[in-house]
Specification:
The complex is a heterodimer of chains A (381) and B (380). Chain A has 381 residues and is an alpha+beta fold. Chain A has three domains: 83 residues, Orthogonal Bundle (Butyryl-Coa Dehydrogenase, subunit A, domain 1); 108 residues, Butyryl-CoA Dehydrogenase, subunit A, domain 2; 131 residues, Butyryl-CoA Dehydrogenase, subunit A, domain 3, CATH 1.20.140. In chain A, 49% of the residues lie in helices and 16% in strands. Chain A contains 13 helices and ten strands. Chain A has a four-stranded mixed β-sheet with strand order 1-4-5-8. Chain A has a four-stranded antiparallel β-sheet with strand order 2-3-7-6, with no helix packed on it. In chain A, a hairpin with a 2-residue loop joins strand 9 and strand 10. The longest helix of chain A has 31 residues. The two termini of chain A are 31 Å apart. Chain B is of the alpha+beta class and 380 residues long. Chain B folds into three domains: 109 residues, Acyl-CoA dehydrogenase/oxidase, N-terminal domain (Butyryl-Coa Dehydrogenase, subunit A, domain 1, Orthogonal Bundle); 104 residues, Butyryl-CoA Dehydrogenase, subunit A, domain 2 (Beta Barrel); 152 residues, Butyryl-CoA Dehydrogenase, subunit A, domain 3 (Up-down Bundle). Helix content of chain B is 52%, strand content 16%. Chain B has eleven helices and nine strands. In chain B, the strands form two sheets. In chain B, strands 1, 2, 3, 4, 5, 6 and 7 form a seven-stranded mixed β-sheet that branches. Chain B has a two-stranded antiparallel ribbon with strand order 8-9. In chain B, helix 7 packs antiparallel against helix 8. Chain B is globular and about 80 Å long. Chain B starts with 6 loop residues before the first helix and ends with a helix. The mean pLDDT of chain B is 97. Classes of the chains: A alpha+beta (381), B alpha+beta (380). At the A-B interface, helix 9, helix 10 and helix 13 of A face helix 4, helix 7, helix 8, helix 9 and helix 11 of B.
Chain lengths: 381, 380
């Protein structure tokens, strides 16, 4: 048992740090560090820079063009990226549909789609949730009827993150309405340019346009765009959700935001002294920092277990809950640290970030659903 | 970076667990708890035979120190079993004090005997009104002929009534809260000028308040420079308390899960109710976060002193303390009326968790320590 990095891991960290520091565009970095909106070009530009260095798939095996890094190296990469203020790599391709295609897709699909995820040519969106299907995802209604060599898709998906930038969307659709709800679902890859696909923006409580509704009206999807078996989609969906949760602890980003919180609390004055010197406020910051220290180690423990078992266990639910609680707590403290300034034009994005991050305990399987999973899968209740 | 114990460490951990589950079940422990002494010499000798009292003894004296992982696994197992014997007070705190502060001759004289279970030496450091401040020592040491005499009061001396030697901190110089000027003395528990007011703590451990009225003491190591050794011992103690708490926390969660699966109301096991399921999920999250911090505490306690060690150990005690309070309180709540009776294990675990949160500095104290150490780390 040893919590310290090995010499090889330290050398790897230094290599990653040197490359990232030298390569991330200054303007992009400024936006990330100040919590401003990152553009499509910023995100794709960063993906291309990494791809050019052979690092386009940090969590992918070598056989599909990935780095083949072990979980500890993947974590180091994520932490260094977060600390340096790089744009977040798009999870929809790299962490969601990519692993599904690798595991369940055919060779043709792997050759067709995976390289374009690495190069940034394809921007994927995740078509899971529907207006009536949130936590009860398997109740989804979007219908796909088989018509010879294609499916005809009709229905509505919602909460589709950054669909306004996407050129492809992976969707869970109902191919058999007669059977048990989990048994009639298929997994389709849909070109967003197909006639009948409409994207409508949803404005969020912070005024941002981050998520969308996506409507499908008689959208023709070739049968070769189905991943795996017809009506086998629920298995792939669950596989994807587990991968989605693995990196959701967000330790690196929370460490960066904690430093920002401390900086703000050092600049703000209370009774002529820095706010961070106020024992009450310092204690609130310390509680969150300690939770984050614990989560960092818990995250490593889950990664180590994953490395041995090859698949993340239900402990990922714990990381989701704690990770999002910490993100939210830091954003709340940042807003409170700025005080009245957070409400004024000089406050930048502090209030907006607080408002925006309320989503984190809702998305990716709400924290209540995660507690159900812990209760059933770990505690056996 | 890796998290699995080495095979021989794993074996030791399993051996301790097996021993305790065979010889220290709830009923066996109850007999010891109800005995006049309140702890078992027989168990103590067996722990010595298993080598568990030598974990913090240096190799030169036949021990296993630093034994980071072994100490972690042993303390966790003892927390689960709710051990009543002086493992923390003598095999950890007393042993590290002698190891860090004693002369070569004193180490040779005391450590092998302590590891063999033949002598018990426990710290008598904290004083009434000092709360958890390690520096605050009002007890006075005076030269008397070739030796020293000690005068003052010590409170909450764990296993004081069981000890052969009290390791008493006292000062011959410096203000009451000056880290410099503190010395450590070995005082015979049955010596002249020593009077104990014995009692049981809420978790059933024998303890005493101690009055020293010009009691003769043997100086351990050099005069006036005991503070570093006290810090080392209490930091190692913090790591052991955190590990012990994790054992007790897991046992508390297990007992609660088991109880809610068997207890029927409205025709179903109460474990079916989502309000209770989510509470137990929250308990599990606390236990796992505490476990992570017990690892961090174990690693850092063996490292040289500094802001990082202080930050890690105080952070660990905060996380573990929060877990002790939440998990303990919820476990009693979920056991309903049974939870507040003496007959069920969970109420004993709750008492243990309550004491462990307060021991060697409560959550508020270590939150302050963490803030101070973080500020110092940033300033340097």
């Amino acid at each position: 048992m040893d919590l310290n990095f090995t010499a090889e891991e330290v050398a790897f960290r230094d290599e990653v740090r040197a490359f990232i520091t030298a390569s991330v565009p200054a303007e992009t970095r400024r936006k990330v560090l100040e919590g401003l909106e990152v553009s499509r070009d910023d995100t794709i530009g960063w993906q291309r820079i990494l791809h050019g260095n052979g690092w386009g798939g940090p969590n992918w095996p070598r056989e599909f063009g990935g780095t083949g890094w072990d979980p500890v190296r993947q974590l180091i990469f994520e932490e260094e990226s977060a600390a340096a203020g790089t744009p977040r790599l798009l999870p929809f391709g790299l962490k969601m549909v990519g692993p599904v295609i690798m595991r369940f897709g055919n060779t043709e699909q792997q050759k067709r789609f995976l390289p374009k995820i690495l190069s940034g040519e394809h921007w994927w969106a995740q078509g899971y949730s529907e207006p009536g299907s949130g936590s009860d995802l398997a109740s989804l209604k979007t219908r796909a009827e088989r018509k010879g060599d294609h499916y005809l898709v009709n229905g509505q998906k919602t909460w589709i993150t950054l669909a306004q930038h996407a050129n492809w969307i992976f969707c869970l659709v109902r191919t058999d309405p007669a059977v048990k709800k989990q048994s009639g679902i298929s997994f389709l890859l849909i070109d967003m340019k197909t006639p009948g696909v409409t994207v409508r923006p949803i404005t969020l409580l912070d005024g941002s346009h981050e998520v969308n509704e996506v409507w499908f009206e008689d959208v023709a999807v070739p049968v070769e765009n189905r991943v795996g078996e017809e009506n086998g989609g629920w298995t792939y969906a669950k596989f994807l959700l587990q991968h989605e949760r693995t990196n959701i602890a967000g330790v690196g980003a929370s460490k960066r935001e904690l430093l920002r919180l401390k900086r703000i609390a050092s600049e703000e004055r209370k009774d002529g002294k820095p706010l961070i010197a106020d024992p009450g406020f310092a204690a609130r910051v310390a509680q969150v920092e300690i939770e984050l220290m614990a989560l960092e180690i818990t995250n490593l423990r889950v990664l180590a277990a994953e490395a041995e078992r090859r698949s993340p266990g239900p402990e990922a639910s714990l990381l989701k809950i704690k990770g999002t609680e910490i993100q939210q707590a830091i954003s709340e403290l940042m807003m409170h640290a700025a005080g009245p300034r957070a409400l004024s034009a000089r406050g930048g994005t502090l209030a907006a970030t607080y408002l925006n991050l309320r989503k984190t305990s809702i998305y990716g399987g709400s924290n209540e659903i995660q507690k159900n999973i812990i209760a059933q899968t770990i505690l056996g209740l | 970076m890796h998290f699995s114990p080495m095979p021989e460490q794993q074996q030791l951990g399993e051996m301790v667990q097996r021993f305790l589950s065979e010889q220290y079940g709830f009923d066996a422990r109850r007999k010891i708890l109800d005995s006049r002494e309140g702890w078992s010499r027989e168990i103590w000798s067996k722990l010595a035979e298993l080598g568990l009292l030598s974990l913090q003894v240096p190799e030169a004296q036949g021990g296993m120190a630093p034994a980071v992982v072994e100490t972690l696994l042993t303390a966790t197992a003892m927390g689960k079993a709710m051990l009543l014997e002086p493992f923390l007070s003598s095999a950890i705190l007393g042993t590290v004090l002698i190891r860090e502060l004693g002369s070569a001759a004193q180490r040779e004289e005391l450590l092998p005997a302590m590891a063999a279970g033949e002598r018990i030496a426990v710290p008598a450091h904290f004083e009434p009104g000092a709360r958890f401040d390690l520096r605050r020592v009002a007890t006075a040491a005076r030269r008397s002929g070739n030796g020293w005499t000690i005068r003052g009061q010590k409170s909450l001396v764990l296993h004081g009534p069981a000890a052969d030697l009290l390791l008493v901190s006292a000062r011959a110089s410096g203000a009451v809260d000056d880290p410099a000027g503190i010395s450590l003395f070995a005082v015979a528990r049955e010596g002249s000028g020593v009077s104990l007011s014995p009692y049981r703590t809420p978790h059933g451990v024998v303890a005493a308040d101690v009055e020293l009225a010009d009691a003769p003491g043997t100086l351990i190591g050099a005069p006036g420079s005991a503070f570093a050794g006290l810090t080392a011992a209490f930091d190692q103690g913090l790591a052991a308390v955190c590990a012990e708490a994790v054992g007790a926390l897991q046992a508390t969660l297990d007992a609660t899960v088991e109880y809610t699966k068997t207890r029927q109301q409205f025709g179903v096991p109460i474990a079916r109710f989502q309000a209770l399921q989510h509470r137990m999920a929250d308990m599990l999250i606390h236990v796992e976060q505490a476990r992570s911090m017990s690892y961090l505490a174990a690693m850092r306690a063996a490292e040289p002193p500094g802001h990082e060690r202080r930050r890690a150990l105080s952070a660990a005690k905060v996380a573990v303390g929060n877990a002790c309070r939440f998990v303990g309180q919820q476990a009693v709540q979920l056991h309903g009326g049974m939870g507040v009776t003496d007959e069920i294990a969970v109420s004993h675990l709750f008492r243990r968790l309550t004491v462990l949160e307060l021991l060697l500095g409560d959550t508020a104290h270590h939150l302050e320590q963490f803030v101070a150490a973080s500020a110092q780390a940033e300033a340097t």
